[in-house]
Amino acid sequence: MASPAQAEAAAAKLAPRLFAQAGETDVVGAFPTREFDWLRAAGLLTAGLPARLGGAELHTPAATHSLLKVLQHIGRGNLAVGRVFEGHLNALQLIQQLGNAAQVARYAADARAGRLFGVWNTEIPSEGVHLEALPNGRYRLRGAKTFASGAGHVARPLITGALPDGQGWQLFVLPADARPPVLDSSFWRPLGMRASASFRADLTGLELGPEDLIGPPNAYYRQPAFSGGAIRFAAVQLGGAEAVFEETRGFLRSLGRTDDPYQRQRLGEMAIALESGRQWLRGAADHAARPDAATDEGAEATVAYANMTRTAIENISLDMLQKAERCVGARGLLQPLPFERLHRDLTHYLRQPAPDGALADVGRFVLDGKHFEA
Asked: CA nearest 29: which of 64, 68, 76, 80?
């Protein structure tokens, strides 16, 4: 695979297969191992790398539209797979942006070997991860991360930790296959996204070398990459909303309810909402690729637009779920039909951090008289 278009085609082809398998892995504590074997075979685990390292160039701003389409296709197939896959692509992108040449080459080789990456950032402040200094630039870790998606299966999680003496937050890669954290699977008793294995991971006592540190302190929180990255999970969510739409349409056809005017009206509204989401992603991709994205003004606009996009797609997805429920009724929410699982997974995944703050950031941007021209 050597181009963004090929990555899109591979993801689109894989989505129905992922959907057909999704019910089998919808178990608390399970992980879609077989599905990630399919992603690996399709070349999608390396798609976020440059062509010279065996990828499809999805890491470039110019390929953002293709990146979002890939994520949308995978989300349409299985939201739990999409959640972990988005973290994998995010981690590879951060390593390429912040790591040195030797680190980029080393971790690209890991991706080609089929190792999964992820980003573990969420923590409870009272038990968060700290780096304690040792001789020769080494550190010992103390503390834990929560919602560590893919725990036990992600071999190269990219993790944030607090440096000593208030020096800031340091990003590092943990070789979790060689230095595994202690996992608490009892933490993960979710409404949905059961198969994402988002356990609590205790890193206490593990050690790092200087070669494991990625970038300078606080680099992870630089804008627009930090908040602007919300468009990736929004793309996965819209894929889930698309699956809801497609299954609703198929259900009504199977019952011969296509002539009901009220069902037609609801499907029309759902189609408009879905297309609105696609347009939001196109706009977000345009902003991510804008030539001045590295400037303060460009970064601010990109972040504000990303916050609008995530908010709009959250609202679109919630509306899609409500209309689908009215279309299919109680009968449609019985297993083994997929609506019950889709509802749980999408509802859970829509709960992303700081939704009110994201919307308030948009309000501040426009109240300052600023504009969104891409």
From this structure: 80
What span, in angstroms and rounded, lies between the C-alpha atoms of 265 and 61?
A: 38
Measured distance CA(314)–CA(184) in Å, rounded? 30
Confidence of residue 295 (pLDDT cuts 50, 70, 90): confident
β-pair partners for 211? none
Q: What are phi and psi of 148, to 5 degrees?
A: -80, 85
Report pLDDT for 374: 54
What is the token pair recorded at 367? 């109240």
CATH of 120-219, one of 3.30.2270.10, 3.30.70.100, 2.40.110.10, 3.40.50.20: 2.40.110.10
The DSSP bridge partners found for residue 38 are: none
| Distance between CA atoms of residues 74 and 68, nearest Å | 10
* Ramachandran sector of residue 172 (left: φ over 0; alpha: ψ -120 to 50; beta: rest): beta
Q: Which residues share a beta bridge with 200?
A: 184
| Cβ atoms within 10 Å, residue 280 | 24
The answer as to CATH 2.60.40.1120 being correct for domain 4-116 is no
pLDDT over 80 (residue 296): no
Q: How far apart are the first and last CA of the chain?
A: 30
